[in-house]
Amino acid sequence: MSFEPQDQTRAMPTAAEVGAAARRKRTNRVLMAIGGFIVTVALTFLGLLAITFFIGRVVPIDPVLSVVGDRATPEVYEAAKKAMGLDQPLVIQFVAYVADIVQGNFGMSVSTGRPVIDDLARFFPATLEMATIGIIIGIVLGVPMGVYAASRQGTWLDQIIRVFGLLGYSVPAFWLGLVGLAVFYARLRLVGGPGRLDIFFDGLIQPVTGLILVDSLLAGEPEIFFNAISHLILPASVLGFFSLAYIARMTRSFMLDQLSQEFVTTARVKGVSERIVIWRHAFRPILVPLVTVIGLSYAGLLEGSVMIETVFSWPGIGNYLTTALLNADMNAVLGATLVIGSVFIFINKISDVLYRVLDPRAR
Amino acid sequence: MATTRDWLLADSPTSRFQARMGRAYRVTVALLHNPLATVGLAIVLLLIATAIFAPLLAPYSPIGQDLPNRLKPPSAAHWMGTDELGRDIYSRVIYGSRITLMIVLLVAVISAPIGLVVGAVSGYFGGWIDRILMGITDVFLSMPKLILALAFVAALGPGVENAIIAIAITAWPAYARIARAETLTFRNSEFIAAVQMQGAASARIIFSHILPLCTSSMIIRVTLDMAGIILTAAGLGFIGLGAQPPLPEWGAMISRGRTFILDQWWVATMPGFAIIIVSLGFCFLGDGLRDVLDPRQGENS
Amino acid sequence: MTAPLLDIDKLTVSFPTPYGRVEVVKGVSFTLGRERLGIVGESGSGKSMTGRSILKLIRPPGEVTANRLTFSGIDILSQSEKQMRAIRGARISMVMQDPKFSLNPVMTIGAQIAEALVAHTKLPRREIARRSRDMLEAVRIDDPDRVMRLYPHEVSGGMGQRVMIAMMLVPEPDLLIADEPTSALDVSIQAQVLDIMDELVRNKGMGLILISHDLELVSRYCDRILVMNAGEIVEECVASELSAASHPYTRGLIAAMPHMDETREILPTLDRSQWEAT
User: Is C267 left (phi over 0), alpha (psi -120 to 50) or beta?
Assistant: First the structure.
């Protein structure tokens, strides 16, 4: 940067300078927003760590026992006790705990005998795959349903869709999964059974991403691909049901807001076709809050998968968590809680920020 | 009874009791105009009645085994069939309503007051207290409730009481948020200033003046949350961490019925229907209450 | 004389309330040729509802009934939604009150005006752009090309309302309904906007229904005046003969308006017991 002597006689800033100053201000604002976001996420994550630490160290009567299990030998017990540093004051323990977590040391799992972090990495893609297909179903079906219900407000179709939305809050996910399995797999033989693939195909393809749909295509095995789909479709649909109920409800609510706006009446007065009125005038402004809703729903699906995976013997993080719960494997439980919780927090905060950034009214 | 109705609807009530009764009457009448809300109210009342009169309503004992009669389909003798130990499912569902009601009531009784007080204190005092309390609340709100409840139960151990505590721990933050928002709307109004000038202590202001004004939104929120609480409790029961056998908790019953789902479908599906109906009932009632008590939000539901 | 533009006999609009069905327009009857008609009344008198029912904009649970509601010989009540869409914009248009709310905030002005033409004609894009520009010039907006690229929140209220007028007149309808077109504007701008609207309506030989609460305004820009109160027409007169009005409501309204050379100390208020009002 060259140092030009300031011309003291210049009274007004040039247009270029004003533009540059405005750009700098905008950049600063964006940087501050990003900075604020990082700080909030970090603080919330710290809070999550505090809670898991509390659950792991403070709540159980014997935290060492909950980590090593009641079948551990006295030597293992003593080693674990020393590693956990239980004689230190709680704050020091917490700092050590945070340091461990940040480095990826989630401890060892009592039931699998492996580092928890390895287990989590192995099981996470399965949950991701199921939740992603679920959210796609939720969006593709839920948005049109919500728009349709809002444009036909008061009719019996609208009432049905509303009750449908409430069912999404009232039906237990695991029950729906069970019933789905019984009807669509056992009785009708329409879909694959529990597990991600028929046993026949197990271990036949190299896990590149962990997502069987992707891996099978990469390996050029369409038969495995379709088999995976037949297994995925039912659990993803069950998840999709809950996602669709929520998304439809929120879309309907947003659309009702929009349809009562004056400019929608103006469009009708112009004689514009109803389809254009609904989609171009009423629907377009709600895209941004809808994206937030979809983000929240996705986070909710990750949470909901916990129940479904048990029913479908799906080797995902939810199943890992419930198995660990029954085995009182605290490291595994807390590790899975941390991962799911972190993803949840992250998606929530991103949705928050995205809404504020994209909402034209806030600009 | 025209005169009672006139008394209830009087424009200028002469006593606080009359004013309160009048308001309750008007709310109930408005609620009954809404067909879904009426259904919801009926279901909730049915739940309470079933729980109270369970011994009279259940034809069989919920834990009495009858092995020769195991896994029988629904019939005139056993309306919902029998489970793997020969127990009548209908009776178990009826007694299970006691457990469900107890869980729901205890969670509400524990978490709502805590959330209410935290929110009101936070909103009233503002400043550092507000920031710290809301920081904690936000941290809890950003986390998945079910997962946290699971983790707490893992540490506390299985059982209904621990399940209740775990669910309550995850439920209070939402109420704190609402109570704080409500408090902020009238925090700076003149009647609060008047009481402050009279020299009332902060505790008295909060408890006598602020908390009562938050009640209607709290009632709405608690009712709407009931469905979620029932589902979470059933989920815990399904995994095996809630009520322990032989207690007829609905989630646990579904779990037991899982192995027979293919041929003896009734064991697992019947308790599920009970859960759905009760949850829907609370949802309808909550929606209806919201339409009546808080018309601002009611238009778009 | 050709068939009247509008022929309305006993128009009734009702809505359900928790207390039973309420009629907001009770048996209103009038005809309209290619002239300017003003409908005056206070809030809740039913004047806006009358305007909207002509365009069949009132949706269930609102109910519209009439012995006769015809526009240019077409029976509005029996038209389907699809048929109404062909009429709206192309033959009857409506200018609404506040451009802040009645213009789509995320569409450019040019796009919104063009939409009015696209809905009814199959003109090429260039022709549509030309007509939009001409219309903006007709409502006295300088630099129409620049304005067409702007968004509604980037123009003033008066300009926004002129855009609204342009948008509603560009498909060249036969009848324009103006529902409180200047109530959201500054007093100094009101006359400007009304002058523009008046000029355009007269040049194109259109019919105009001007709905307002401002008696003074209506008497200046209209040939005939209808006074509404509580859903009914209480007075119908020629604008120039307003001072000779007979109904106590109208007389009360006129008496309550101050003049430039006012000598009265206290303005009289309406005594509603003089007629049957709700």
Answer: beta
Q: Give chain C positions within 8 Å (CB) of A269.
A: 55, 57, 88-89, 93-94, 96, 168
Output the CA–CA distances (angstroms, integers) from residue C255 to B274, C224, C259, C260, C272, in the order listed.
Answer: 70, 20, 10, 13, 14
Q: Rounded distance, CA A231 to CA A202, Å? A: 13
Spell out the SS3 assignment of chain C.
CCCCCEEEEEEEEEEEECCEEEEEEEEEEEEECCCEEEEECCCCCCHHHHHHHHCCCCCCCCEEECCEEEECCEEHHHCCHHHHHHHECCCEEEECCCHHHHCCCCCCHHHHHHHHHHCCCCCCHHHHHHHHHHHHHHCCCCCHHHHHCCCHHHCCHHHHHHHHHHHHHCCCCCEEEEECCCCCCCHHHHHHHHHHHHHHHHHHCCEEEEEECCHHHHHHHCCEEEEEECCEEEEEEEHHHHHHCCCHHHHHHHHCCCCCCCCCCCCCCCCHHHCCCC
The total of other beta-carbon atoms located within 10 Å of residue B253's CB is 29
- Contact flag A172-B238 (C-beta cutoff 8 Å): yes
pLDDT at residue B28 greater than cutoff 60: yes
Cβ pair B148, A350 in contact under 8 A: no
Q: How far is A160 from chain C (nearest CA, A)?
A: 19
For chain A positions 165-194, those within 8 Å of chain B (CB to CB) are 166-167, 169-175, 178-179, 181-182, 186
Rounded to whole angstroms, the Cα distance separating C65 from A313 reads 63
Q: Establish if C57 touches chain A: CB-CB under 8 angstroms.
A: yes
The two tokens of residue A41 are: 């996420």
Write the pLDDT tens digit of every residue in A204-234. Answer: 777 777 788 888 888 888 888 888 888 899 9
Contacts of C2 (CB under 8 A, 6+ apart): none
Could you tell me where the DSSP H helices lie in B157-201? 160-186, 190-197
Contacts of B177 (CB under 8 A, 6+ apart): B115, B119, B137, B141
Using a CB-CB cut-off of 8 Å, the residues of chain B touching A178 are 254, 258, 261, 268-269, 272
Q: How does pLDDT run across A98-150, given as a tens digit for each residue?
A: 888 888 888 888 777 888 888 888 899 889 999 999 999 999 999 999 999 99
* CB pair distance less than 8 Å for C102 and A262: yes
ipTM score of complex: 0.86
- To the nearest whole angstrom, how far is the Cα of A2 from the nearest Cα of chain B? 46
Nearest by CB to B262, which of A48, A182, A302?
Answer: A182
Chain A, residues 63-122, CB within 8 A of chain C, namely none
pLDDT at residue A209 in the model: 78
- The answer to whether the CB atoms of B142 and A179 lie below 8 A apart is no
Chain A residues close to C89, C-beta within 8 Å: 269-272
Subunits with at least 3 CB pairs below 8 A relative to chain C? A
Query: What are the structure tokens assigned to C214, written together?
Result: 């401002």
**Residues of A in Cβ contact (< 8 Å) with B140:** 47, 51
Q: Nearest CA to B152 among B72, B242, B82?
A: B242
Q: 3-class SS at B88?
A: strand
Q: How far is it between the farthest Cα atoms of chain B?
A: 76
- Which residues on neighbouring strands pair with residue C225, listed in sequence order? C38, C237
Tens-of-pLDDT digits for all 278 residues of chain C? 456 888 999 999 999 887 788 999 998 999 998 889 999 988 888 899 999 999 999 888 888 999 989 998 889 889 898 899 999 989 999 999 999 899 998 889 999 999 999 989 888 999 999 999 999 999 989 889 999 999 998 898 889 999 999 999 999 999 999 999 988 888 888 888 999 988 988 888 899 999 998 888 888 889 999 999 888 888 888 888 887 888 888 888 888 888 888 888 888 887 777 776 54
